[in-house]
Amino acid sequence: MENDTRDAAIRLTMMPRDTNAHGTVFGGIILSYIDVAGGVEAVRHTRHNRFVTVAMKEVIFHEPVFIGDLVSFYAKTIKVGNTSITIHIDVEAERFGTPGVIVKVTEAEVVFVAIDEYQQKVSIGNK
Prior knowledge:
Strand content: 35-45%
Number of strands: 5
CATH topology: Thiol Ester Dehydrase, Chain A
């Protein structure tokens, strides 16, 4: 994979609190971090600091994530509208105990809308 040429929006180690009864990380935990990674990219790309998530397109999990895996969330802006921004997130896990073994976990497109302190949409097109 191209990890050394990309900058992860976030990277973290999965802990026991993140797992279900089968010892794999809850899909919802991964979804929440996808949301965070997309928000990080939205702020980096636009310099606007307040967004809400309005859509997360189909997410299919290709591989499980286990306790101790180092999970990286790579985010890339794919479209900027007047008030919205669409971010593509790739999720990869480096297997605990086997450095260098990296698997693609999932990917998603997330749409965010810029808002002001009153929760109203604001333009990000000129930033």
